[in-house]
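Try this one yourself first.
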């Protein structure tokens, strides 16, 4: 099984790339951080789909992680998310938590695993061709939660209207979509932290790092690994 991790931004200003690269090397995964500018996309959020589209054929499964998300339980492999997943599943994604102000979304496109198969390739193509306006007209917030005006809404729209939900594994947010307010005692409480919906992400990452005594890569201290050796 070959797993690749991809992320990207055309204006990188966080140190998540160092975090992702460390995690990928630890587990033997390929890693790419895409800084290409996709100026023709309807919103910047859709750039992740172009990045995944390019990487899809290079791995059995590709894991997209937003550039405002960081791994925090370094020892856990991505393969655990594939255990007992039926062969016809092509997408593994998380639901979102309910935020402190009561908002939630049906799924979070900030992180997901997608299989190298024709269904995935066609799905990405159709999501990229879906207008956010069409998804907004169709949207029912009572069923799908908040509308985010981006790729996430187009993904939900295509999954539902193309009859693909039965081929999607939706994990609870704890699997790989936790937020800073889920961490109490240590970085090792959860697998991944996502700074979604934060106005100043650099400040938020700095404050979170300070809280747990690490730098802005959110990598555990060398002492952590010496103690485990």
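Now uncover the answer:
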């Amino acid at each position: 099984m070959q797993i690749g991790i991809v992320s990207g931004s055309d204006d990188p200003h966080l140190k998540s790339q160092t975090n992702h690269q460390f995690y990928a090397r630890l587990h033997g995964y390929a890693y790419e951080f895409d800084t290409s500018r996709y100026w023709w996309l309807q919103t910047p959020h859709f750039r992740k789909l172009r990045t995944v589209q390019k990487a899809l054929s290079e791995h059995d499964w590709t894991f997209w992680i937003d550039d405002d998300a960081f791994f925090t339980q370094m020892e856990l492999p991505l393969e655990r998310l594939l255990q007992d997943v039926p062969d016809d599943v092509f997408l593994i994604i998380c639901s979102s938590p309910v935020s402190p102000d009561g908002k939630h979304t049906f799924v979070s496109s900030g992180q997901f695993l997608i299989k190298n198969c024709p269904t995935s390739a066609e799905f990405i193509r159709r999501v990229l061709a879906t207008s956010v306006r069409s998804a907004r007209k169709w949207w029912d917030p009572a069923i799908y939660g908040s509308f985010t005006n981006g790729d996430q809404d187009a993904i939900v729209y295509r999954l539902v209207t193309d009859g693909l939900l039965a081929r999607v594994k939706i994990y609870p947010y704890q699997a790989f979509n936790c937020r800073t307010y889920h961490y109490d005692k240590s970085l090792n409480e959860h697998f991944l932290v996502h700074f979604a919906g934060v106005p100043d992400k650099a400040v938020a990452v700095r404050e979170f790092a300070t809280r747990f005594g690490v730098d802005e890569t959110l990598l555990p201290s060398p002492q952590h690994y010496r103690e485990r050796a």
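Discussion: Residues 16-27 form the longest helix (12 residues). Helices lie at 16-27, 47-55, 118-128, 132-138, 141-144, 151-161, 201-211, 222-228.
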